[in-house]
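Late entry, evening session. Most of the bench is empty. Finally got around to the prediction I had been postponing all week. Sequence below, unchanged from the version circulated by S.P.
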Amino acid sequence: MVEATQGSCCRHCLSNRIKQSDIRDVGPVGGRRVNARPQTFYRIWCLPAVIALLSGVGLMTALLGQGGAWWVISWTALTAPLFVVARAMYVVFNR
């Protein structure tokens, strides 16, 4: 069942310290090996929840704040999702 070797594992698996016994070759997906372990609820929804929380904080501070530091907080919180989208597009287009 285990066909991955030390040198053929992808960077994602090595950075998350997944044991080699958890990886199996289930066919090429974009030229990479596929993680055989199922994704947990936390891994799937952590980043979207943080983005939603930042957007909500940014919208509330923009609506309720009277200027100064409130505007800085709102602009920072509302631009964070843009950086996440820009990074995702960069990763997709530079494969």
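Two things to note before I forget:
The chain has two domains: 1-37, 39-95.
The helical segments are 11-15, 41-64, 69-93.
Will write this up properly tomorrow.
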